[in-house]
Amino acid sequence: MFRSLLAAALLLAPVGAAAEEYFVVGVAQRQGQEGSWWGTELWVTNTTASTGGYAVVFLPVGQSNLEALRVEPTLEDIPPGVTVLLKDVVPEGGLGALRVVTTPGVMVYCRVFNAAGRGSFGLGVPPLTRAAATRPGEIAHLVGLRRSPQFRTNVGVMNLSIDNGAVRIRLVGERGEVLGEQPFRLAPGAYLQLTDILHAFGQQRAENVRAEISGTVPFIAYGSVIDSRSGAPTLVQPLR
């Protein structure tokens, strides 16, 4: 049950004290490279003995999502012990991130997959809280990135703050050599995706590459290494 930002009740207030807040980055429902078609499914599970609630807000790529970060959305009820599978949380052609608000004890998990590939489950993407963000002064390391006739790598970064900010991405080779470095501006709540990042940084072929990502605002980063033979992605979580 995709709830667009226009349909959400845009009550510009912080999340209530009793609510939990999660972010899932890199969700999609769109055509990709090499004939891929990326889809997203979200599980919502009420682990408590009483009725809970949840709401999902989609944050589109490449724009400010300030209102979406501030909104206190109306929650859908979920009975005790029930698991709901949502297949339409991302609109057709969409790419970005999800903000999920729940009552305590309601858990969420996400799958991003290539429906046109020969892989199976795809990426199991864990939801992250604001406490999991990389802070200014810290560096998020994405290890094991590669580009070859068989593999390509995507990297995504989301600004979790309500302030304008910037991130700097540096690619480092296996001998410690810098392969490329570039800053990127991020509006409040903005999601940035760099598709085939090694090629974008001028690397036609590279193995065992590490991305160092730092920022002026709290952010979430991840990598996805995609096997061109099967179309299957592998999640690369940041190390700090």
From the spread of the alpha carbons, the general shape counts as: globular
Provide the structure class: mainly beta
Number of helices: 2
Strand fraction band?
over 45%
What percent of residues adopt helix (DSSP H or I)? under 10%
Low-confidence stretches: 1-15
Radius of gyration: 18 Å
What is the C-level CATH assignment of the largest domain? Mainly Beta
Q: Name the average pLDDT.
A: 92
How far the N terminus sits from the C terminus, by CA atoms, comes to: 35 Å
**Could you say how many structural domains there are in total?**
2
Record field, number of beta strands? 16
Secondary-structure arrangement, i.e. CATH architecture of the largest domain: Sandwich
CATH H-tier superfamily of the largest domain: TM1070-like
Description:
- The structure is a single chain.
- With 240 residues, this protein is mostly beta strands.
- It has two domains: 112 residues, Hypothetical Protein Tm1070, Chain: A; 97 residues, Hypothetical Protein Tm1070, Chain: A (Sandwich).
- Helices cover 4% and strands 50% of the residues.
- It contains two helices and 16 strands.
- Strands 1, 2, 3, 4, 5, 6, 7 and 8 form an eight-stranded antiparallel β-sheet that branches. Strands 9-14-11-12 form a four-stranded antiparallel β-sheet, with no helix packed on it.
- A hairpin with a 5-residue loop joins strand 15 and strand 16.
- The protein is globular and about 55 Å long.
- The chain starts with 19 loop residues before the first strand and ends with a strand.
- The N terminus is likely disordered.
